[in-house]
Design brief:
This protein is of the alpha/beta class. The protein is built from 9 helices and 8 strands. The chain has an 8-stranded mixed beta sheet, with helices on both faces. Residues 141-151 have low confidence and may be disordered.
Amino acid sequence: MKPSWLNIEEYPFESKYIKLDAGIMHYIDEGEGSAIVMLHGTPSWSFLFRNLIKELSKAYRCIAMDMLGFGLSEKPENFSYKPRAHAANFEQFMEHLHLKDIVLLVQDFGAPVGFAYAIKHPENVKNIVMLNSWTWSLSKHQTFSKESKYLVGPLGKFLHDRLNMSARTLVNELFGEEEKLPEAVRQHYVKALGNPDDKVSKLACARELVGISKWYDELWAQRKQIQETPTLILWGERDKLIKIEALQKWKRFFHECYVIHFENSGHFLLEDKAGEIAAYVGNFIKEEQKKRLLEFNQ
């Protein structure tokens, strides 16, 4: 049953659920055709992709899950919330839906979770679409206090400074760069976290979600498994969480990489540029399909 605060005109999708070993996961599955699997970051959920799905589901099968602890998924107390655990859930999710030959679309923390799967199953991921993300530890380049030594990466540093902040304030700060975001839309992110007045330290988005450096280092060490995967990068340059240096690192990494810059957008560029992004993603997929067909016929 959908919560009373959810605007079904804004999010007009059929809710589906899968029972994983760790808890009940919510997801949406709209449209038909080649599958685009979308992975959100923090503190968002599949709601972030709603306008993208409205456009792309006209020609593709669009699948977006809510990680455990986020959105309309269960928030189990006994779940570890470590990134490795989220990645295991995603692998189980993919197996349940028998998804093959997908386009993997990731944003923020969705990148390490999604790339963990792509590295392990590169044959199942034909293309990657990335929005403002990172997938490496910064522990060797930063000094952390005893309390924050496991909070690595830009997300970890950001959250560590805000552990005593309310969920409501956290969302307002993260989405602060999206000046035109309607308050009714903003509230969909606030209320999806649970109690808006809870401290960040109690939320799933801060409970070990940023993980430990070992897992990031392991992931980065295996990155060559996806280095040849054709990738489209869409980057909001006003991102105050993930700096432009991360984009430069991705550009150096992927051998076949196309980059679209959004000078006036930030970390959540899907909130104001969904139409443009849908067009870029659709064109990218079509061009990649043409290339594969040409290679097959040669």
